[in-house]
Amino acid sequence: MNHLRSKRPSYESLEFEVEPTVVTRSKRPSYESLEFEVGPTVVQPAFSPGSFVAGRFCIERELGKGAMGTVYEATDLESDERIALKVLIQARGVDEEIRARFRRESEILSQINHPGIVRVFAFGHQDEDPWIAMELLEGETLGERIERQGPFELQDLLPIVHSTCSALAAAHAQHIVHRDLKPDNIFLEKGDSSRVKLLDFGLSYELNTKRLTHTGIILGTPRYMAPELCRSARSADSRTDVFSMGVIVYEALAGESPYQASDHGQLLGAILSGAQKPIREVRPDVPQSISDVLDRAMSRIPEQRHQTASEFCESFAVALQIADPDFYPANVSRDTIRNETTRRVEKSYFGSSAATTPRRETKSRKTAQEGSKRSVSGRRFALRNLIPVLVLLGGIVVAAIGAIMMFLQSR
User: Fold this and answer.
1) pTM for the structure as a whole
2) Which of 105-109, 219-223, 289-293 is least confident?
3) With contact defined as beta carbons under 8 Å apart, do 357 and 323 qualify?
4) Which of the following is catalytic: 80, 95, 180, 263?
5) Is residue 180 annotated as part of the catalytic site, yes or no?
6) Over 110-177, what HEC string results?
7) Other CB atoms closer than 10 Å to residue 72's CB: what's the count?
8) Which of the chain's ends, N or C, has fewer CB atoms near its CB within 10 Å?
9) Cα–Cα–Cα angle for 250, 300, 377, rounded to 5 degrees
10) Measured between alpha carbons, how far is residue 131 from residues 8, 10, 79, 252, 302 in Å?
């Protein structure tokens, strides 16, 4: 069978009719010939809702405003947490000392790591306005709590005293004195009032550093100021904060100030003279042991006060346990209470309080009383030895005066 194969045509023999391709280019319009409607440029104000600070914090809303600054709620874009942004508004027009205090608050808060002191995430300037990004708190201040519910019960107040003194001790360990302690600067967190945050370190300073305060300027809130701070801001140390704690605890228990004054001058006079009203006159159910602790904390003489915030806290807890032997503070161990009752600095509990608060005699109390007696005996012994010396000096002075008189008469 023969297979027929068609002969493939040669491409060279094929003819194609190809029309020429015509490329046309549209003429681009001239920009000069176009017309645009451009509206006014809108510039978002700094520190307004939706604006950004340091490219990290997005402002949500304003929380509060004071004479010198504003606090905003913002979102930290790095952690997606809500934070508080404190801004010193119009800083260019304020005193340089106020700017320095704002910077110092930023630095101080950033270097103290304690759960009782508000955390700082960052700080800086924007358009020359200083700002601090800090922990956002929910709750109320101690001042608001006192105004809302009235005086505290002792057992309810102790956790607040303990937490506040713990935060103060951390600041004092860094050689930082608050200088403006008051109920409005003690923040009680929502849901657990024993969780305390210390606020507003703007008037605090570091010991042994350059002071920003000029002589004659009174800093702080007068009602809570120690006498030495009323005289000079340069005299403040940790015992200044102890004095303020005494006044704060007094107000929390009594619901009023220990100083009865109708104007600023009378108030300063009462503080300088130590004319505070005994708390048992305002609230008779307060034990004498607690009254003794407050009287000591509010002493006009710093050396007679509790020397540290921790000592004040322990004294308060011990006084409460003495008034109620069945009560043991949760934040203070039994060993601490037992050791504290033997210390000479607490011997005041076993004096006036013994006559008003009946309690069982313990070995530790007897030890403290014996120590007090030995101290008194030692002073009497020193006085007896001093009398002959004074008599001898008196005789020498009399003889010298007689010799001078005879010399003058002979002339």
Assistant:
1) 0.66
2) 219-223
3) yes
4) 180
5) yes
6) HHCCCCCECCEEEEEEECCEEEEEEECCCEEEHHHHHHHHCCCCHHHHHHHHHHHHHHHHHHHHCCEE
7) 24
8) N
9) 105
10) 89, 87, 19, 33, 36
